[in-house]
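Record type: monomer structure entry
Structure origin: computed from sequence
Chain ID: A
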Amino acid sequence: MNKFTEEQQAAIDAPGKTIVSASAGSGKTTVMIEKIVRLIISGTDVKEILAVTFTKKAAAQMKEKLRRELVRAINDPSATAERRAALRKQLSEVPGADISTIHSFCSRLIRAHFFAAGVDGGFSVIAGDDAEGTELKSKALDEVFENAYEEGEERFTRLLSVYWRKKSDNRLRGVLSDLYEELRQRADYREFLKNSVPFTEEKFDRIAGELFALLKEKCAWYAALAESELKYFSSVGREKSERNAKEILSALAEMGASADYFSACALPCPAFGQKERKKKGDGEEMVSHIERLAAIRDKVRDIFSENAGVRTREEELAAYLSSGEIAECLAEYLLRFDDRFGELKRERALLDYNDLEHVALSLLTMPAVAEEVRKRYKYVFVDEYQDVNPVQEKILSAVGGENVFLVGDIKQSIYGFRGSKSVFFARKQQEYERAPNASSLYLTRNFRSSDAVLEAVNAQFVLAMKKDSAGIDYSSGSVMERGGRYAVNSGRVQIHFPEKEKSEKGGPRGVYSVEKNWLKQRNAASSYAACIRRIIERERNARYFDPDSGEFRRVEYSDIAVLSRKKGGRITEVISALTEEGIPVTAAAAVNICDYPEVKTLIDILDLIDNAQQDIPLCSALMSAMGGLTAEDLARIRIAYPEKRFFRDCCRAYSEEVQDGLAEKLRRFYEYLDNLRSLSAVEDAGELLVGILSETQMEARLLSRDNGEECLRRIHRFIAETVEPEPLSVHAFLDRLRALDNRIEYSENGGENSVRVLTMHASKGLEYPVVILDDLSAPFHGADRDEVLLDEEFGPAPKCYRPESMTVSSTLLRRLCEKRGQADEIRDELNLFYVALTRAKYGLHLIFTSRPPMSDVKYAKSFSEFVDFSVWEKYIAEEENDELPYQERQALVLSPDEKLSEEIVRAFTWKYAWPQTINLTVKSSATEMMEREDKRADECAPREYSREYYSVPVLFDEPEEDAEEAELPETPETPDADEKEKTEENAGERVGKRADAAAVGIAYHAFLEHFDFTKPEAGHVREAVDEELRRISEEKLMSAVQIALLDPARLARILSAPVFSGFSDMRLYREQKFLVSLPAAEVWPGDYGGEEVLFQGAIDLLAISSSGDVRIVDYKYSGRDKAALREDYMPQLSLYKKAVSKILKVSTDRIRCSIINIRLGFELEM
């Protein structure tokens, strides 16, 4: 039976050039892998295939899927020995196959032709925004600016007159840097920049013409909506609303019929009639149409309001030409910066990701290189083709020959802000539809989502995605069909409108209250978080159907994802609220902890330790727990010494000359600060911060806050940055902070079973049983307001600056950039809405704070304006406001409870009964032992530990002097002869023909540590062992010396043990270290008064099934028989069993323990 649908089979069989438009969840990657596998089976070499993806993770997953499919083909009973041999050869080449990201491909191409490319063959790749890339950019700008300052260049002075802000040229630096990054997304960015200037009247007229065309298009859109309302009101005889509709149509017609753009913008806004009032007996339909017409009227008013900002043609032309002078200056210094930045990278043999693309493209313009590449790659596959940028599209077009397979989904093009252009996908579709040896296909069967989810998405996007509004007709080739994995009408979709907080009346009018505004924002966030919490708790009490297991399962926290449009804003407050409510949350959206006051305070304290002659850090430190002063105290100090210029001098004088409580505080502060400055010479920044938190009781004070635990987590993340990758001094750490632009990212992590909170962009390619989409009524980002915009056709668009009048204004070119940018943003947001909705497998929840009166897809300002709520009416949920109101913390005055006090003191002064054991190391893994082999040559025998610690510190159970020597295979099965030569050359006397039991045991243990237990199939264990030996050798997971100690036959015998047979469907944890407290009486005989002992260890292999069954496997390299092993290791494994039972919260009855005796090749179930 064919496991593929007709659509999938057509794509797999399609010859020549093929482009596949694959809807969400349609199995496009599976189809691509199957096509590659069939090519290989039919005789194509893996080396002749190029497959490009857009993330390293996707490339790794594609390789793994390809490997598994090849293993399945090798194990096919019908396969001949010759075919199996050929497939094994191809399987061995998969790790090195050209299945990679576009940048990895470019890197390999450049290294292969580095001389022709004019680059150092040993180049390194950097990211433009990492520390090294940022440093080089800054250095290049410094040198360009220094030269311009020295020469006193007129054009540079002109730029400074415009962008000099706050006594600094930082704004100009930022403008040049941002423009440069955007320009580099073009293949011809240097020529484009040169040709964009000078600004001319002919270009101006073209810009005005483009704007007029966009204006007429907008008028036609709203005219069509108003015409629809006119027909309705005419049919029901509502004359007032009918007149209102005609007024709107008349105004739009007049604007569209204007002679030119400036005439249209000069039209005054008509005095439209008031909205018709609701009459008694009007139904919901009538009210809805009245509201729609009012909304259209407001949209038309907005058009007139926008147009009012346009001046006369002469004034706009003058502003445009004036801004052109700035554009010419910017172009000149951008090119200079590009030259110097390129030189610095060449000096250090560095290329950034943009360089990889541009250099690779330049190579592919060389006929010889292009021909060589096309001959090498007979088949080219590209995944996520809708996300290519202009440079990448040119590269892929140059590489592709007659056999090209492109897969993507124009509806999932969401990276326009990175320069991705879905227009390439649309063009290629049109090209392949017309070409003779090409085909344009569709995959519409969705295997991810339930019927309810599919129905809801299809119903909305059939209306939203149309040619005139979104540039794509969803109803033609994009409507998702059910994949048949769920029961008919299964799943659930709900729309939620959180209750708004009631506003409190009172207070003087016109007076802004900071406290009330803060409370209003907090209450809104609290109400919003309460809605999400209710959804989560209701889902936790529900079940969903899992098509993979074929059964219903209870919804866990980890099955739920909350998707947000933005990283920051309200969603961060929701994360905090959920965390405070005890709901485990893992947030992919990172926040900058340096923006939080508690971390800012620590940065100021470090600044003060580094340089005590700074007023602002001094004030911050004085008002922290380190100083204990208030704002009033600082004011007293300042007032006491009005003649002193610096506040730091006032503080020193006050501490030395005044005798009062405040002066005493200052003296203690300075004594402590001086001590810290002395310590900074010998302690790193992290050690100082830990001491400060403890000694000043800052940690305790933070914990007393409502969000104290979150504050401490952020502080711990900050301190961790001081020691990664190595401990840094205070000065070095502050330097690093500045290089990172004071940005350290932190994400909430609630563990494995936690609600995932991530952005919609980050969710692409993922899926969850239950998805919650957060505030879908939040406004989009809107038009860019940057100092300089960049238009794809006309180039940089600065503002018009008039130094003589000290005025600044926009230009028509900027207006055109904004209009085009808004259109692109709306298309991307509509695609993002589709991506977010289709992440849901079974349950989908959408949260809106308002319901717009009409859908306005083409000019939407939020996700809610994409929605026609009339088709989603049945999904609107009846909210139950069963949450408690927000409670302020209150102080309770009670009589002292002596008994309770004693218990609290005892709890906080409790000491561990066996403190001498807490620093003992956990059992070593084979990998760790190999890394320390030279240092621990004499430590193979077990050490004697005190009874308080129960563990087996090494891998072997017999002293070295009693162990029999383990013979090496006479002919070691190494991957090839060269490797064998290398083994013999390097091993020397260290290995020889015999090895001690410890070395052999380590080697076998290390192999099992790296072995892929999904590979062995019945009757083919030896083949899997050989394959894994090659992989481990190629990936250098073990040294050649270690591999030479292994006997493949013995490994096959070990892996044939029954315990390994069921591991393919279990989650495996290797060398799983743990630390758990157990009752001391369970570890040793005797009465210990209820005391517990810390028990730590490392389980060689821990396997957990989906049903909750657990297997513990312990490897031993021993000459002892089963009885002896059982007697010696029953206590150890019994404790392992209790530890795992407590950690995983499973009954010990569901845990089985086995020992694998590597040396004698048997399994012992304990």
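Annotation 1: The chain has 42 helices and 31 strands.
Annotation 2: The first helix runs from residue 6 to 13.
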